Structures are given as structure tokens and as C-alpha cells.
Amino acid sequence: MSAAATQPAIDGWFATDDSGAAHLIGAKCPQCGTYVFPPRANNCPNPACTSDVLEPVELSRRGTVWSYTENRYPPPAPYPAPDPFEPFAIAAVELAAEGLIVLAKVAEGTLAADLKVGMELELALEPLYTDDDGVQRLTYVWKKVTA
């Protein structure tokens, strides 16, 4: 599939490097160093900080499972769901360097029984749905570290 046939499901939340490795795009306060995800341009979330500027920053590609669960039913409209629906795991992954916990679907084929708190996961991309124009929309997922 050509690169033109795939696009992010949400623009500006992730990117890939020259090798194709995915990373999340967050934001960081230049005044106090607080990170946020999803990215935004202003309103530092640190209550002790008065900065109204946040700068885009690449977030860690790997983190550890903080918590997880399994989604056993399809999401309601207008959210896309495969037919037939297959259960999938969701993990809250701690990015220690940034002090963030990022929630995302876990890669296809990995269920809650395959996860444990503290295990290392890394970011990857998977198709979420195909839009009305035939463009495959990608989302970020957490996957088990293979090597």
C-alpha cells in the first residue's frame, strides 16, 4: 500500500522517523518542564506555573504498563468498529522520562491475559479504519517489545 493511501486518524498526535518508527508528539512547557499529551500550544497544566506557552516535543517510544483492561464490546456510533468485532486490550503506559501516562489500544493479537503491570511496551501504528475516500486511517498502539 502506498504512503498516500494511509493517513493518521488524528493529525498531529504522532509521526514516524526515516526508519518508519513511530513516536508520539507531545508538548512541553519551556518554563517548568511539564509534559502534556495530546499536544497543545498553550495552558501549562502545572498549577504552580504561569506559562501560557507549550512547545511540540517527541515523546519516548517505550514505556511500562501502569494499568490495562480489555474492551469486550464494539464502540457505539459514530466510532468505527470492525465487523465482526474482536475484543482488544487497552493499556495505560507510563513514560517515565516525561512523567506521563498515555492510554492506547494494544496491538492486535494481544489481550489483557498477555499483559502485566511493569512490562515494557513500545509504540507502533495500526490501521483503525478506512474512510469514505478509501484512505486507511492509522492510529498509535502499544505493542510488546520483541527484541
Automatic annotation (TrEMBL):
Domain ChsH2 rubredoxin-like zinc ribbon: 23-53
Taxonomic source organism: Mycolicibacillus trivialis
Protein's recorded name: Benzoylsuccinyl-CoA thiolase
Record Pfam families: OB_ChsH2_C, zf-ChsH2
Segments forming domain ChsH2 C-terminal OB-fold: 57-124
